[in-house]
Design goal:
GO terms for molecular function: methyltransferase activity. The protein has 17 helices and 12 strands. It is of the alpha/beta class.
């Protein structure tokens, strides 16, 4: 049966509204981006502020500011308690820059032109199955970060903010205490390994990343009081991975890369992990079949990996096949809710 011959699915007014909301989603993105750039959340008093007061502090036009704040209220970021007077909602609180759980840097990074530029060529990425970032910006995503230190710092801050919730959940979700040493491969500033070492005082850590990735690690580990228990090693996981750990942790690493490049990373770990060791992957795990009742963020993130890096989010079956190819066997998958990650545990075979 051709599409033209298939019975028509009934369409409701709600379906039309949904299409309109989806198409206008980029406008909502720009509203949140502008609010973060202007520091709106930081300028609103806990008791509430008027649009005129926010405009005076931000140096913006009062009338346009009122319109922006009302759009933010319509999106659930603010609440208009009286005509022209606003307070923050829980969502708006996350845009404050002085909260330890702030998502302001995540918003700034995700809405940066470097992140949005490739998305204009999503159709080309789907046609070819390859990333479009290099064609758009003349270099790879990480090459672009290396050429723009301010953006690189913002990326690192965004990754740190995105790791905090997983770092809160993971040490309680898995028994790291059975290991002498845990290596965090591609662990950046050490937010995750610091949480593991804090929760398990008898464990030592090994933090492995590029020199640029490790640039803020000393401060993070020192602030957590674990710097004396965590070695820092600079290197490239496409070239090698250091020996000396029983557990090797990869958070938000494999989704950056296609199967071929991910297998290279995993094989380097396989070469040094002891027979009794464990490989621990913290990443999104997509369902085998899309459930429309669940958040679409996992699948949007999957397309983002395609556009920017040629990477992918994976299902449990995808992980099992990738691990098998690299000399591991998938042992278990554990949700790390409320973080949008799962823990994929594998053993060397």
């Amino acid at each position: 049966m051709t599409t033209s011959q298939a019975p028509a699915v009934p369409v409701t007014a709600g379906d039309r509204e949904r299409i309109a909301q989806l198409v206008c989603g980029h406008m909502a993105t720009r509203v949140i981006s502008a609010a973060a750039a202007l520091g709106v959340a930081d300028l609103i008093d806990p008791a509430g502020s008027t649009a005129a007061e926010v405009a005076a502090s931000a140096g913006t036009d009062p009338g346009a500011t009122l319109r922006l704040l009302r759009a933010l209220a319509a999106l659930g970021v603010l609440r208009e308690t009286q005509p022209g007077r606003f307070t923050r909602t829980g969502v708006g609180e996350l845009l404050r820059t002085d909260r330890p759980d702030s998502m302001a840097e995540f918003v700034a990074m995700t809405t940066d032109p470097a992140m949005l530029g490739g998305w204009a060529h999503l159709g080309e990425a789907v046609r070819t199955g390859r990333e479009v970032f290099p064609a758009t910006f003349g270099t790879s995503f990480f090459g672009h970060l290396a050429e723009h230190p301010e953006l690189s710092a913002r990326f690192n801050a965004a990754m740190r903010q995105g790791t905090r919730l997983a770092a809160h959940v993971l040490p309680q979700a898995y028994d790291f205490g059975r290991f002498d040493t845990v290596a965090d491969v591609g662990g950046g500033d050490g937010t995750l390994i610091a949480a593991v070492l804090t929760a398990h005082p008898g464990v030592r850590g090994l933090l492995y990343d590029t020199a640029e990735g490790l640039s803020q690690a000393e401060a993070t580990l020192a602030a957590a009081g674990v710097a004396d228990r965590c070695a820092r090693v600079a290197g490239d996981f496409f070239a090698s991975v250091p020996a000396g750990a029983e557990a090797y942790l990869l958070k938000s690493i494999l989704h950056d890369w296609d199967d071929e490049r991910s297998e290279v990373i995993l094989r380097h770990i396989r070469a040094v992990i002891p027979p009794h060791g464990r490989l621990l992957i913290v990443d999104a795990v997509l369902p085998d079949v899309v459930d429309p009742r669940l958040s679409a963020l996992g699948h949007l993130g999957d397309l983002n990996m395609l556009v920017q890096l040629g990477g992918k989010e994976r299902t449990r079956g995808d992980f099992a096949a990738l691990l098998r190819a690299a000399g591991f066997e998938l042992a278990d998958v554990t949700s790390l809710a409320p973080a949008r990650f799962s823990l994929v545990e594998a053993v060397p075979v």
